[in-house]
Design goal:
6 helices, two-stranded antiparallel ribbon, mainly alpha
Amino acid sequence: MKLILLNFILFQIAWFITVYSASLGLVWFGPVFSMCWLYTHLVLHKNNWKVDLQIVVISAIIGFILDSMMVLSGIFSFSENASFGYPSSIWMVALWVNLALTLNYSLGWLKQKLGLSSLFAAVGGPLAYYAGSKIGAINFENDTHSIIALSVMWAIAMPLLIYILELLTLRTRTEVIPT
């Protein structure tokens, strides 16, 4: 239980550090913090490191693709200070890494509830982007249009990530371990 609470707290801290530092033009600070958290996480969860690392990589790729699609379609853009990388920024990818580190832990309760995970993400995902816009890291062309598009994206992305996590977990459990 303590590790789940620690996971939740570190996720919140990582989000704030990453977004706030990006708004200040310190686009590498959040990703460096995220990599430190990733290392600590893998040390604390040695039994599950393989699945955790796989979902982190997959989440980073999916996140880069989805956020890039949103940027290219004009749903949001990066503030001048926070733009590093194209179409999506490195600090945005770090946020997806941070999210992946919660899927088996503080958000693990969503694993058997894909419908609820979709609803949860359809609300929470856009709210995080909206908060990022208020901090000054991203800009919306049209708040309503952007929130709706992000809501649809997250309603699909979260259950997809959870489904992939479950496949990775199942595959790892069924692998034959040599004696």
